[in-house]
Each structure stands twice: as structure tokens, then as C-alpha cells.
Amino acid sequence: MAEMIAVSLSAKVAGALSRPVAIKLCSLAGIPSGIRAAAQDLELLRAFLRFVDTRHGGGDALADAWVDQVRDVAFELEDVADEYTFLSGHTSLRRRCANVAAWLTLSRRLRVARERLRELSATKEQYGIRPAAQASISAAAGEGEDPVAVIGRRLAERSHFVEEDEIVGFAAHTRLLMKWLTGDADPQRMRLLVCGMGGVGKTTLVTNVYKKVAASSHFDCHAWVTVSKSFTTEDLLRRIAKEFHRDVLAGMPWDVDKMNYRSLVEALRGHLSNKKYLLVLDDVWDARAWYEIREAFADDGTGSRIIITTRSQEVASLASSDNIIRLEPLSEQEAWSLFCKTTFKEDADQECPNQLKHLATKILERCYGLPLAIISVGNLLALKERTLFAWKNVHDSLVWYGSSDHGIGQVSSILNLSIDDLPHHLKICLMYCNIYPEDFLLKRKILIRKWIAEGLIEEKVQGTMEEVADDYLNQLVQRSLLHVVLHNEFGRAKLCRIHDLIRELIVHRSTKERLFVVSKRTVTLEPSRKARHVVLDQCTSDYLPVLKTASLRSFQAFRSDFDVSLLSGFRLLTMLNLWLIQIHKLPSTVANLVNLRYLGIRSTLIEELPRELGQLQNLQTLDAKGVFEEKGIGEIGKIRKTRWAISI
């Protein structure tokens, strides 16, 4: 998320500097130009920050320490930009002009932050902290490949050796896929798609069916290749050509390693002419992979079939909707069956001992129905003593991120691929979803309004911010990172859910980078720690610490005790969401939160809004559903920027 700091700051600076300021003092102090210049300096570091974002603590302590310091400076620059907005946002000209000391202090803070940023830029060059370090990491994995790509390829290849009795939960999908391959007499070449999130079992399902069909004489020839993210067209065609000749005694008739694109396409077309072939393209991330090789696979009316596995619903659109299989996590019963088959594989009955069933159930709950996670945990437990002590240690130490155990660590590696593949604007929107409690249903309208209020949505010429945010949400759904639970009458997503294991990963990332602190029942925020976004879920007043409110940008409380007097200290807050909080009155001091863009008081006991609320000229959304009908809503008309006032 380091890169996203630079991106979001640039957007925030653009918004802050577009505001008219009634006095020229800030300009004389050089604040607008200084903020703009600092944002440009930070922008120059984005290439390196993008590299760091994909490493997840890859062992380079020097780079990690440097990024931590860049993050601190970026936070300070964001504070300066928000303080600028705060000071210039007062409706009273007299208050703007009277705060000379604050403007001068702001100017000094800006100079110090810019100087620190220049020092860090020089330090990066001095100590040779460069993205080129990635090459050495990749080289260690062998043949210059990315280590995560190596893990993915090995898992895919291992699926060829999984016995059928080890596979759980795919019986209906297997029958359907077999029907499409061997029972459908349609002579046209057909594309079949299997899609779902990483680790859900796409490759295992398809490979199991592929082995059965390849062993028969239903197809004249067959090939199975992994595509992955970092493919090249010529290399992909070469590997496909070699796979089609894997079982040919005479071997390859051409020297494919010396052939260019045109020669490869012509050779494959000639080899497959008038043949009924089966091709599996595993782990396709981009529809471009098919479009760049499709000329090699002519449709001769022989009944050929092409199976594609993908995490992307956009790629899945390559096939007819009738030819798509969408895999979901396993049911509880299926998950238990797979767990026992893996953990007790060497036992005749493959049953879990009674004394371990309670712990086994708790461990299995942490796998969230994901086959890859279940198998990884099962393999780990198979090596442990079958004692309560040993299994409790596994349960208590089970984390999906940064694990030293290879099997457990590869789960996060596979899932992190989906997160790392996101462009910055989608990644920060996904990260924001960690504010919601576990198993929480995300309402589309509320989520996109929060994204807008937090400044995560970029203005675009071709659409409103709401339309852009809606498109971002749809892209996350297409990438299998958000799952649609309910559609509205127009076919659009109405309710979404994020898979619990994906949520664990983004919560870990966000907490590590000090952006979000999410507390459930017991507050985990240390009083001395600064945080940008705080979420309290079912927390009682006994655990509420003294918050470092100066750095806070969003505060959200779900079913928690909350002292409204704290609001006076949330100086630069842009998001305040009090959901199911037992408060009867919103204090008038909320009007001092000049930067506030989103105010949520849904399902509270508030009966009337304070008259001063009309002073919040930046407020975009008031979510007061379930609070009152008409009483107190009149002041909202004074807020020019309010997009939505929900009072149902």
C-alpha cells in the first residue's frame, strides 16, 4: 500500500488547492506551491513504492525501513494538505484572517516535510535501495522467475498427480465438464470456462477431467499449459506446441525454440488441421492471452474443445454463459471430508480421533472452505503428534501471512497474487473493505459513497464519481475479490461479501502499514500509536483508550460504546460512521469538523439533527436511515455539496 499513499496524496492535494482562499497569507507563505511540489516529489518515488508493495516483507530490511520513513513523511504531507483545507474552509472570513499563527506553523511543517523527503530520496541513491533488488530475489527461485509464479506453477503441475479419491466437492462439476467434452456432439470448436477465486480448486477439477479424457481416444491430441500473469505470446505458443507432441514417439518435427510468431502459428495450424483436439489453458489472467494465440487454433468443425481456468470474470466472458462453471468454497461437510482425507491419509478409516474433533473444527473454520488452505493445514497437521497440546499450538499460531511453514505460506502467496495484480485505484478500494466486520454484507450504494468521501475515487471526464466508483466495484467482483450475494432488479450488485481469508490478508497489510486499526470487542489501538482509520466493532467503554485523534481521518463504530465528547478532538476527520450506537443526541460541535464528507448515524437513537450541521459545506453523504422521518432534515438543504440525504 506504500504506492497508494503517493496516489491518494496527489488527489487530495489537487482537491485542496482548488479551493478559493479568502486571504493571501497562505500564498505568501508558499503553502500551495510547497504542497504541490512535495506531492510531485512523492510521485517520482512511485515506481519504487510499487515494487515494495508486492514484496510483503521480502527480507530487505533496509528497503522496509526506508519505506516506513517515506510513509511517515507522506502522512505528514497529508496532514498539511488537510490542515490547509480545514483552515481555508471556515465560513467566517474573520476566523480565516485571525488564524495567522496557524498558517505560519503550517508553512514551517511543510518546509520540514519537504526537506525530509529530499533527504530520503538522497538516501535511496546513497545506499542503493533500488527495484533492481527484485532480480536477485527472483533469481533465487530459479531461472529468473518470480518466486510466487514458481509456487503457482508447481501447484498446478502437482494437480496431475492427485488421485481421484482425494478430490472432494467437485462431483457435479466433473460430470458437467465431462458432458461438455465427451457427450456434446456439437462439431464447432467450443471454449469452456472454469472460474473462481485463487485456491478454490479450479486447476484440480480441470486436471482431473483432463487426465480421464486424455487417457481415452475421444480426442486426436491434447495439451495442458499454465499461462500465468507474465506470459509472452511466442513462449506460450512454443509450450503448447511441445505439449501437443508430448506423446508423439517421433518427437517435435520443428525446432520451435528458433521459430517466430508467424512460424509457430503456421506450424500449429498445420499440425491441428482436421484433428479433434483438447487444449487446457490454466490460470489465465488476461483475455489478451487467448486473443494473441487464437489464430493458431482454427475451427475445422471437428468438435475440438478449449478449457480455460481463470480468477477473472472478464476472462470468463470469452465463453458462452452456458459454458461457464463458477466454483465456490466448499460446504462444511465437504471441507471436513477433505480435511480428514488429507490429515489422516495414511489411516485406513481416515477419521479424526474424537478427542481432536473440537480443535479440528476450530482449525477448519480458519480455512473458510478454501481447498488450498484446507490441504495446506491438513498436510501440516499430518506431521504433528495427535495430542491436544500439539494441535492447540497449530491453532494458536495459524496465520496465513508471513508463515515460515512452506505449505501455509504458499496459500497467502497465491491469494496475494490477486491483490498485487490490482492497479492502485482498485487496490486501495479493496483495502478499504477491511473496515467492515467479518461476514458483514457490503451494501453497494453505501460502499461507493464511502469510497468517494474518503477521496479514493478519481474524477473522470466520461462519467460521474458515482459511476466511476460503481465501475471499480464491478471490477473487484470480476476479479473474484468481492462476491455478489444479491442483485437488484436491474441486475446490478446490491449486496457483496469479501471472502474471510482475503479479508485476513488485507487487514494484516493495512495494520502493518498503520493505515487501519480494526478492533473487535477489545480495542487493539495503543494510546501512543497514530492511525489514519479506526474501526470499533462491539467494543465496550471499559476498553476505549485515549485516541490520538490528530491523525485520524475516519472513525467508524459498529454496535460499540462511544463517548460523543470525543468528536471535538477529531479535527481533520472526513468520515464519521456511528452505526447501531446508543446515542440520543449529536453534539453541535460536529459542525467544527470542516473536512467531514460522510456522516453516518444509521439505526441510532438520535431524533433530531443539530441546526449547526448546515455549516458542513463539504458534507457529501448523510446516512440517517432508521433514525427519523422528516424532523431535523431541513438544515441539509443548506449544504450545497450533499449528494444524498438518506432519511428513510
UniProtKB/TrEMBL annotation:
InterPro entries: Apaf_helical (IPR042197), Disease_R_plants (IPR044974), LRR_dom_sf (IPR032675), LRR_R13L4/SHOC2-like (IPR055414), NB-ARC (IPR002182), P-loop_NTPase (IPR027417), Rx_N (IPR041118), WH-like_DNA-bd_sf (IPR036388). The keyword Coiled coil applies. One of its GO terms (biological process) is innate immune response-activating signaling pathway. Keywords: Coiled coil, Leucine-rich repeat, Nucleotide-binding, Plant defense, Repeat. Residues 435-506 form the Disease resistance protein winged helix domain. Residues 26-92 form the Disease resistance N-terminal domain. One of its GO terms (molecular function) is ADP binding. The keyword Zinc-finger does not apply. Signal peptide: none annotated. Residues 175-347 form the NB-ARC domain. Residues 552-626 form the Disease resistance R13L4/SHOC-2-like LRR domain. Belongs to the disease resistance NB-LRR family. This is Os10g0162854 protein. It comes from Oryza sativa subsp. japonica (Rice). The lineage of its organism: Eukaryota, Viridiplantae, Streptophyta, Embryophyta, Tracheophyta.
